[in-house]
Amino acid sequence: MRQSLTFIPTLREVPADAEIKSHQLLLRAGYIRQNTSGIYSYMPLAQKVLQKIQNIIREEMGNAGASELLMPAMQQSELWQESGRWYSYGPELMRLKDRHGREFALGATHEEVITSLVRDEIKSYKRLPLALYQIQSKFRDEKRPRFGILRGREFIMKDAYSFHSSFESLDETYEKMFTAYSRIFERCGLNFRAVIADSGAMGGKDTHEFMVLSEVGEDTIAYSDGSGYAANVEMAPVSAVYSRTAEECPDMEKKETPAQKTIEEVASFLSTAKENCIKSLLFKVDDRFVLVLSRGDHEINDIKVKNLFEARSAELATAEEAKEIMKCPIGSLGPVGVPEGVEIAADHAVKAIVNGVCGANEEGFHYVSVDAERDLKDVAFADLRFIKEGDPSPDGKGTIQFARGIEVGHIFKLGTRYSVDMDASYLDENGRSQPMIMGCYGIGVSRTLAAVAEQYNDEYGLVWPAAISPFDLHVIAANMKSDAQAALAEKVYQELSGTYDVLFDDRAERAGVKFADSDLIGLPIRITAGKRAEENVVEIKVRRTGEKLEVHADELSGVID
Ligand code: ATP
Ligand code: MG
Ligand code: MG
Ligand code: MG
Predict the structure, then answer these.
(1) Partner of 226 for a Cys bridge, out of 77, 343, 397, 500, CB 3.0 to 4.6 A?
(2) Which pTM value belongs to this model?
(3) What catalytic reaction does the record list (predicted)?
(4) C-beta separation of 296 from 274 below 8 A
(5) Is the CB of 447 within 6 Å of ligand 1?
(6) Looking at ligand 1, which residue's alpha carbon is closest to its atom 3?
(7) 96 CA to centre of own chain
(8) What is the ipTM of this complex?
(9) Which atom of ligand 1 is nearest to 442's Cα?
């Protein structure tokens, strides 16, 4: 590709509102442009990276036995009503109406569509298991789109779904997907960890997130330095939640003054609070304290709250009890918790809360977060202990360390969550109707691009790992006005193009501009026809190490290999 013919608008200045390295560099190097908040165009260079990532994904999904399909982004509300998520998903789901007033959603995820597709076609156990995937734009009206394409409102996801007639079969596919995910992120060059994620009501090891280790990550993971153990901490100290409540909802405090309230009042309170505020209530349930938290923009309905307290004698705690308990940090489901005294941004706390976690501290104080997507009656009150950095870890090997992570992938055993509500069933060997058992597996494709950019850069720009670099080589004519340089660069470009994907900077720009752009764009190898062009000598520069080498143009392909 000739640079004079393509579209790589580079910027010298760091864009003012780009806080993190990957966002700054992807803008500066002309990979992405913002259209509006959380919505981006992928310019030609980014599109090439995306295609390379997608090809890796396609190969590994194929190895895992999954077939690619493409489902509609626009989805009729009826499907979402069947699963119940039309009511529970909240404002993250983009909704629209057609000219007849019929309601639709823009796909935030595709469980509903795929479940309806498969239930209509597959009736027998003989046709299971089945694994399908697509690569497509997803729409989520994120409350806080940020960091460029790391958290967009329109973003590219690979989403896979599997259907089974037994849990053993689901386990097998889950294992295959786990392996495929590990291979995908390895091949993209990422430094990542697979972590045990919060599985809420589902329990156990039924869900893993793939976390790219990075300071800018929004998740916190606890891992052992002596084994492969790692888990998402999903922690939320109550104090952070409370300070946010006080700041953003000054009149909430008053309304919330603990008093004896009925479940109905609590439910109505939870469902009416304004957007942007955290609602929290402290209950005494069976002599234990239960803190119910929810975010104002999640729809919480009466039934869920009722379910939670069904068969328990719940009453609100007194002001004194509340004060005592608010001093304690709270942990999360699983063998990890929040270390004493750790300050976590309210935002992070909110995330943990809406993800639906429950936990307790050593004294046995419990909290439950209200997650609209889950049926709270299933939430178990797990007994947890708090851990600190340096503590021994849960599997007896090494000590606990904390790190920040960017979630690039998430795999989940869904069980019959969708098949029961949506009536996706098959006939087993004995002719009995059974709900299909499902798994789902997501990768943020555009987020993966940003995560690689975040891990691979230096003071001069991006430094792509070869496997997903937009081009293999950058050929530059230092001075296009020099016939010798232009001709040699052209010859090198033509010759190498047979074997490699080459970007040729044939622009009539100053050499300094070309070199700066080249470093910014970050292709692994640069080949320059410069001062020694008349002798047929070019300079090779390795982007990552800065190593330089002069070679005769005829020997070039041998050297590059
Ligand atoms: P997050 O916790 O970051 O909001 P999520 O848990 O809501 O992500 P999933 O529903 O698990 O996301 O979706 C699968 C994958 O899609 C995620 O692992 C992530 O890589 C990607 N993804 C989710 N939301 C976004 C977004 N707003 N922008 C870019 N990628 C995203
Ligand atoms: Mg999310
Ligand atoms: Mg997540
Ligand atoms: Mg996730």
Answers:
(1) 397
(2) 0.79
(3) tRNA(Pro) + L-proline + ATP = L-prolyl-tRNA(Pro) + AMP + diphosphate
(4) yes
(5) yes
(6) 407
(7) 25
(8) 0.99
(9) 14
